[in-house]
Amino acid sequence: MVKIAKNKLQKPQAKPENDVVILPPWRMSDEPAPKQVKWINRQRVLVFATRGINHRHRHVMEDIKKLMPHHKTESKMERSKNLYVVNEISEMKNCNKCLLFEGRKMRDLYLWMSNIPNGPSVKFLVENVYTMAELKMTGNCLRGSRPLLSFDPQFTKEPHHMLLKELLTQIFGVPNHHPKSQPFFDHVYTFMILDNRIWFRNYQILSEDGALAEIGPRFVLNPVKIFSGSFGGMTLWENPKYISPAKLRQAYSKKAAHKYERRIEKKVLYESTKPETGYPDIEGADFFKGDPMEKAKEVVVKEEESEKSSEEDNLVENIAPKNKGKAKPDMAIRRKQLKAKSKAISDQIKKRKQFKKKKPLKCPH
Question: Where is the composition biased (Basic residues) (predicted)?
Fold first, then answer.
């Protein structure tokens, strides 16, 4: 009875102002946890591949998974199955978007982007693939952070580009308040249109003034077809400039097949246009033929004759010689120099002849 009286004598607790809800100091385990209401955009992307992709394509798929914290994975799909099965797999995984990597001949990679279950869907040919591991760029970003999406202004000009822009935005855009995402914007995805292809790049935002550093991966998406349904249906748009990689390889092999014929044609053309007479001989080419001593004497005699004729001309004209630069050496010194040069040339020729001769073999004792 005393305890009850004490409780009655206690003052009533004052109600908090402004209707502030005060949480209890403890909570029973049977009570359900409060749900997060902020996560409204429930986008989930299923990323997986078919059998037949090589190691390079698998690494690109893993890089894309790292960039998308809202993705879900699935084991490889058999190639014998129809693509409509992907819709059922996505619904079982509770995904409303899908990225399917399809390999052909262990060298070609196709990428399907689809909106589950009603479409539309797009088929791309993936070209110029470079993974994060082989690029080794300096850029880096927090795993799970939300990216900024940057699109080329050409995406707003054509209707099929506008559709691709909306599909890429819904697939690569990380939803706000996603449980596996981080509330930061530290990298940006750029989608550029060049040569009728979509070029993908991933950059780190270094500072607020716009400084960027590339992270990777790199790839180019060549659109093939746009379908009204998910992995099928009516064709909404088809790329008129698309050429399959098999046809390109076939054209290259045909071009290489006629390599021998082109070489023979060039040879015949060269023989037909070849000039009959060659270039004239160089003056003084016979100087190095014969005995060098005799050639040197002939040169000395020619120089003496030329000097005598020049002296006679000077005497006739009565023109005094003008000293330009260094004075000419006397004839005796000139002859000695020529003799020394001719002797050096003859010594070199003798040494070459001796070097070419084989040394006699020594008989063993």
Answer: 350-365
Cα distance between residue 112 and residue 223, in whole Å:
10
Max CA-CA distance within the chain? 161
Please give the C-alpha separations between residue 242 and each of 98, 194, 199, 223, in angstroms, as whole numbers: 23, 14, 16, 8
pLDDT higher for 226 or 298? 226
All domains of the chain, ordered by start, with CATH?
45-252 (3.40.50.10480)
| Residues 194-233: b if buried by 16+ CB within 10 A, e if exposed | eeebbbbbbbbbeeeeeebebbbbbbbbbbbebbebbbee
Let me know: does 186 contact 204? Beta carbons within 8 Å.
yes
Cβ atoms of 187 and 145 within 8 Å: the answer is: yes
| Cβ pair 236, 160 in contact under 8 A | yes
Q: Is 361 left (phi over 0), alpha (psi -120 to 50) or beta?
A: beta
What phi-psi label fits residue 339: left (phi over 0), alpha (psi between -120 and 50 degrees) or beta? Answer: alpha
With 70 as the cut, is the pLDDT of residue 361 above it? Answer: no
> Which pLDDT tens digit goes with each residue over 176-211?
989 999 988 999 999 999 999 999 999 999 998 989
* CA pseudo-torsion sign 206, 207, 208, 209: negative
Contact between 111 and 99 under an 8 Å Cβ cutoff? The reply is yes
End-to-end CA distance of the chain: 138
Joined together, the tokens standing for residue 149 give: 């999406």
Q: Given CA atoms 49, 150, 40, 22 in this order, what sign does their dihedral have?
A: positive
Taking only the tens place, the pLDDT of each residue in 209-231 is 989 999 999 999 999 999 999 99
Task: Check: CB of residue 87 under 8 Å from CB of residue 116.
Answer: yes
Measured at the CA of 78, the angle between CA 74 and CA 82, to 5 degrees, comes to: 100
Q: Of 128, 286, 147, 155, which Cα lies nearest the Cα of 215?
A: 147
